[in-house]
Amino acid sequence: MASNLQIYFFYITGIISLFFLHSCKPAINDNDNNSIDTEKGTKESPTDTMGILKPTLGNSENKNYSALTTSKESAQKIKTFLHQKYLEDFDVLKPADRKFSFFQTDFNNDGKDDYFVHLYGSYFCNAEGCTYLLLDNDLNEIAVFKNLYSPIYRSDKTTNGWNDIILFSPEILKDEHQYINITFKNGKYTYTPAEAEKLNFIPSQNCIVMWDNQVSAKEFSF
Predict the structure, then answer these.
(1) Under 8 Å between Cβ of 65 and 216
(2) pLDDT, tens digit (0-9, with 9 covering 90-100), for 180-202
(3) Nearest Cα to 130, choosing from 36, 28, 210?
(4) Residues in contact with 148: Cβ distance below 8 Å, sequence separation at least 6, in sequence order
(5) Residue 35 CB partners (closer than 8 Å, separation 6+)
(6) Residue pair 9/44 in contact by the 8 Å Cβ criterion
(7) What is the count of structural domains for the chain?
(8) Looking at the domain assignment, is residue 77 inside a domain?
(9) Cβ count near 107 (within 10 Å)
């Protein structure tokens, strides 16, 4: 009898364990079937220096992608644009340089998504950050930002019809202000770090955060 009770106990314990293993599995946004030339996700990881977030390539198994980063149609449009823009550089671009991720969201309140594009590899990144492009829905180049660290925020405030952009200050190691505010003027975003508005507060929760340390952006090749 004791032997039968022991077997029954292990049987019930096994069923309960399987239930919890299944129910505790984290939810993911797996969009592998809606991608082109995908390699892996990019995820930003914090460093131990002054709390600065620096861009790093994420775990290839991480599929917790933001829904703003996975559109196959948008990725194809951006891929075509990058092919044309950097066609003359293809002889020197390594495979690691021909990778990008993007966030799509409306920056000028016209009801159409625009594209904030993050470029990778040693050709576009260095110790001071990476190159980012902001393209409108028709793939017109609105801004080129070089030597930026993430995260990047689309502010809930607007200037001349376009959302402000909040960036990490390049002077963060010398200045108590961690962020600067970039506004749209004269048909473009003006980015002069020395003259940019410095913020002494963290971005609002109403901002859209891109390339933060919580969610991956799907990576594509061009």
Answers:
(1) yes
(2) 999 999 888 877 767 788 887 88
(3) 210
(4) 129, 130, 131, 132, 167, 168
(5) 70, 72, 75, 218, 220
(6) no
(7) 1
(8) yes
(9) 27
Q: Would residue 8 count as lying in a domain?
A: no
- List Cβ neighbours of 180 (8 Å cut-off, separation of 6 or more): 166, 167, 168, 169, 193, 196, 197, 198, 199
The answer to whether position 119 is within a domain reads: yes
CA–CA gap between residue 162 and residue 101 (Å, rounded): 22
User: Would you say residue 1 lies in a domain?
Assistant: no
Domain limits for position 193: 30-221
> pLDDT (tens digit, 9 = 90+) per residue, 125-165?
998 889 999 999 999 999 999 988 888 999 999 999 999 99
